[in-house]
Every structure is written in C-alpha cells, then in structure tokens.
Amino acid sequence: MPIRARGTRLTYRSLLAASVAALTALALTPVGAVAAPGPGAGTGTAESPETRDGRESRKIRESRPVYSYAAAIRESVWVDTRIDGDGDGRTDRVAVDIVRPREAAAQGRRIPVIMDASPYYSCCGRGNESQRKTYDADGKPVQFPLHYDNYFVPRGYAFAAVDLAGTNRSDGCVDIGGRSDVQSAKAVVDWLNGRARGYTTRTGGERARADWTTGRTGMIGKSYDGTVANGVAATGVEGLETIVPIGAISSWYDYYFAKGAPLFGTGPDRLARAVESPEAVSRCGAVKQRLVEGAPRSGDLTGLWAERDYVADAAKVRASVFAVHGAQDLNVRSKHFGQWWDALAEAGVERKVWLTQAGHVDPFDFRRAEWVRTLHRWFDHYLLGYDNGIDDEPMADVERAPDRWTTDRVWPPRGTRAALLRPGNGALPGVGTLSRTPAPPGATETFTDAPRLNEIDWAKAIDRTTTDKTGFITAPLTRDLRLSGSGTVTVTATPTTTSAHLTAVLVDLGPATIRDYAGPDEGIVTLDERTCWGQSAPGDSACFKETRADAAEVDFTVFSRGWADLGNHASPAVGKPLTPGARHTITLDLHTADHIVPAGHRLALIIAGTDRHLIQPPASTPTITLDLSRTGARLPFVGGSAAFTAATAGAADRTAPRTAAPFDSVEGPRPVDPIPGDQHR
C-alpha cells in the first residue's frame, strides 16, 4: 500500500473505513433532494440499494452532488480559543463561517467538515481571482472564496472558513504561525468534536453547538492557510483526519532565513501588519513588538522560531497528509515540503504528494480537472470512510514538463541514495569539473560576491571564467540521471572580510521546455473563459477562470538551490563575525527536488555569493577562496553513486568554453515579498 510505505503506522482510519462509510452512506440520498450538478460537477458510481443500507458499504466509491447548494444553511459561529492573545482580559473568539446542506440537517444526518483557516479572507483574498468573504446586511456569509464549498457541500460535506485571530471578524492578534494562529484553528476542530465552546455572536452568551457534524475534519489551504494546517496537525488534535497543505511553510525560521542568511528585508511583524483587521491595529502593538524582538535580523535561532517549527512535532501528527508543492516555488521554497515530508515519513504518517514545475501556484490553477477528482476521492476516503482505493495508488505525482506527469509508487523512489560529488579544477579558472574524484590538497577556486547578480546570470556564463562565481560541471551524460529528494553542499571557504553569504545551485545544462516559474504568474497564464466546479448560488459562483501552462524554451534549468551565512559555520543557531583569512566550513541545505538530467545534458554545481532577490547581501563585499579538497555535494540519486558513475562513464570531459554566447533561460528571480499583493496567491 504505497501511501503507507516506509514504515507508516496503520491508523484507526483504515480500520474504521467500512463502518464510517456505512454510517454516512445514508447522507448521500436525502428524500426530495433538488441538487442537479452544475457544469464540471463530476461523475461517479451511484450508490446501489444494498450500499445504502450499509450491508455492503465498502462498495461505495464516490459521494454524489445530491444536496442543494442554493438552499444550504449559511451561518457564523464564534469559537472560544481559550487564550487571551490581545490582553484585554477576555479569551479570544475566532469567527467561523459555515455552509452546510440543509437537507442533511433537517433529517438529523451528521456530516464531516472541510476547513480552510486563513488570515487573508478580508485583507487580500484567496485564489487566482483574489476572492474575499462577503456578507449580507444581517452579517450572514454570502460568498465563500474558492471552490471547496460549491463542490463539496452538495456532496454531503460542510465547509468552514475560519478567520485567524486578529483578522476579519475575529478577536485576538496575528502572531505569524505561533500559538494564537494555530489555536485559532485547533479550537474549531475541538468545537466540532464537542471539546470547545462556540457562540452565536462575537460577544454574546448564547451557545452554538456542532451537533450536526461527525467531527471528522479535513484542513486544506495554500501558503499561510496550509501552514496553519501543518501547525494544527502537529498538535495531534483528535478529529483532524487529514490535511492538504499546498505550498505550505513547515518552519517559519526557514521562511525568513537560511542558516542565518536573511531571505527577505523584513520580518514577521510586517506580515502581521498586512493581514490584521483595522481594529486589531491598536490592540496588537505588544504582539508585533514581540515579533520584532524575537526575530532579530541577525538570523539567530530564538525561542520564537522554535515555537513555530512544526517539523519538530511531526511525530504527534495523527492526520493523513496530501502535500502539494512547487519545485520552483521561490516564495515558500521546496525545503519546507522536503523536511516536513521526511519527518512525516520517519513518524509513519500516511501521505501523498504532487510536485509541480510551477512556482507558488494552487493545483486548481495548473491541473484543475485531475486535482478536483483526486481531492474528491481523498476527502471521500479520509472523511467519509469510502474504500475507493486512493490509499493504494502511487504516492507521488511529479510534473516532468508542462502538463506531463509521471507517478512513483513511493517517494523518493526506492533505491534513492546519497552520493558525494567533488568539485575539481578545470582548464579555465572558475570552470571546473564535477565527479566522484576528490580534488588534491591545495586545489582552490576564488570568486567575489556580486549582489547585483543571481543564479540565472551565473548559469548563463557557466562555461566562461567570471569573477562572481565558480562552476563545476560533469561531462555530458551517457544516460539519464535522476535526483529525488534533498541534498546538501559542504563548503570550506576563506573570506577576506568579516561577513559573507553563500549560495549553491544545481543546474541541468541542456535544452528543455519548462514552466516559466519566473514569469508574472509563476508558470500559468490566466484565461478569460470560465469553467464551473459544483453549484452556484446568488453571490457565490462555482465558475472560475481557466488557465494554461506558461511554457518557456530554455538552454538550462536551475532546479535546486540553497543559502547560508558563513558566520553560522560554528552553530546554526548563532552567527558570529568571520575571521578574514581563516578557513570556515559550513553545510548548505539544498531545496528538495525531483529532476531528471537527460542523457547528453550536463549536471553543474555553482557556488557563489549573494543570489539577488532570493537572499539579502552581507554587510561587506567579500572575496572568497574555496578549498576544493574539503568541498563537496551530497546528492540524492535514484540508484545512488552507481547511477552517477554509470551516467558519466565513457563521456568525454569538456571544461573548455562550449559557446561564446550566453545561454537562454527564464528571467532571473523576481523580488519576492512575504506580503500578499501582486504575487500569485
């Protein structure tokens, strides 16, 4: 069973699948239902009479759109988080807007819940069209952003859109992934399972009870929303059956820093200011000040960051995890997915993954029909208990070229092992070799930090001597070579100044067609035509703009990268000034990737300084000398070192200039701002 491979523990979900399906089967065929599916609503196997009475519930394969979305109950509840984040002397209540089928409620049929907890519902919007929540004159919710409500409510689910503390209609303060953010959503899961108090108003005493739900909850969301799902799952809360984090953060330190190197020019306090409600501005100053003090621009690890590291608590996760991430996501970089995935694997968590060539993009906008179908089956299995076989299917879908996907039974594939590659001097300064052979003692290469340049500039000049980078290249491969997982690069460097930042990137040198992840919409183009996914109601359409792949023809592809402040060489937690003229050794974490370097292409490792728009420059402009004999890249090859040896065997070495003209590629990385705005949400 591939989703449970690599030591996954068997959970009660699998053992109870048949019984849960029997209990929920009746919810699919309400008397007098009037819900004809809209365009794109999907098809499936209808329930037969014998499945409806539960005797053969395992035959149920798919929930059907038998409820009316237009007639659904729309309500708001305020759930007590049991914390006083804004210090006003009363515990905070978070607003939960809910839409659920009226027919199920009338007949006393309990249903599961799909939840998206977000800080963006009023400030910035969700999805490709930046949809916000809307309300009628009485404050009842009208529009729920995205398609989850339109598609799943007719199929017997409730959808809950939670305003994180300090945003929209909630009390409290935004604390950027900390206790308040996580408790905002965890308290709702508790309320759905009868363990927390809910109220019909923000300040009143009339109780609201979730007696209409089974308590089985699935959290979903992109970016910040998916990050909160990770954080709630890491509490081990009962009733959270599955999470679907899309482009999500797993450790907030790693969002703002890479081993001490700042990735943005701002800290979490600025993000808090961008998403908080107007009334939270005056009451939440102390919280924002704690964010400033706890997240020093030095990049030191502090208690604030430890509280926001969900990877450390992966062993507490009870929920299954369906992760989606962009291999070229330069906002929430793929390291977040990789370290979370590895920790979940170690803990034996049931899991599945889609890896796309796009950047920070929702799968609804790069693989829409297949995404809706797969997500439907995933929720049916983990929330309704249907034995539809999704947990027996390949664990991973990986995009190899625009709209061309492959699958793996387990991920990384079995037989993937790290191999140590070593840089060596070549025929030209700064244009070296990459092989399994260590460089002799005394071999060096030198470059000077050039903060105006980036990884694309370096790769364009890979075969030429330049002062701003060093490149190490294999001979043309004689067979395909696949890297799958997370690698590292260990560098021994001697700086001329007291500060230095380092970048390491992996490059596939050869022509390819890829998604233009550096384009304005990070690999997609939004079209004018719309398709519909579920049912519409006045004020809430189920129809969304279609997209297509934004493809680019390139001569090389940068497919993994990593950064560090050399001042963190002695400790990942604390940086110190460097000693000019002294050697320092540090290991850079490369971002998780799954990439095939085809036969005839070359694999390159580039080591340089500031990667413009991706890390901030150091205080000085150092010249750095690399000790090649003490530098190496440990990379995850499918087939291990033997695969690398086979792919480079018999190839003619070439370190002389291959062309006088720079290579073509996507544009260099654009500035990424952690504040929602023009960037793709």
Q: What report would you give on this structure?
A:
By secondary structure, the protein is α+β, with helices and mostly antiparallel strands. The protein is 19% helix and 30% strand. The protein has 16 helices and 31 strands. The strands form 6 sheets. It has a 12-stranded mixed beta sheet with strand order 8-7-1-2-6-3-9-10-13-14-15-16, with helices on both faces. Strands 17, 18, 19, 20, 22, 23, 26, 27, 29, 30 and 31 form an 11-stranded mixed beta sheet that branches. Strand 11 (257-258) and strand 12 (261-262) form a beta hairpin. Helix 6 crosses helix 7 and helix 9 packs antiparallel against helix 11. The protein is globular, with a radius of gyration of 26 Å. Mean pLDDT is 91; it is low at 1-57 and 655-660.
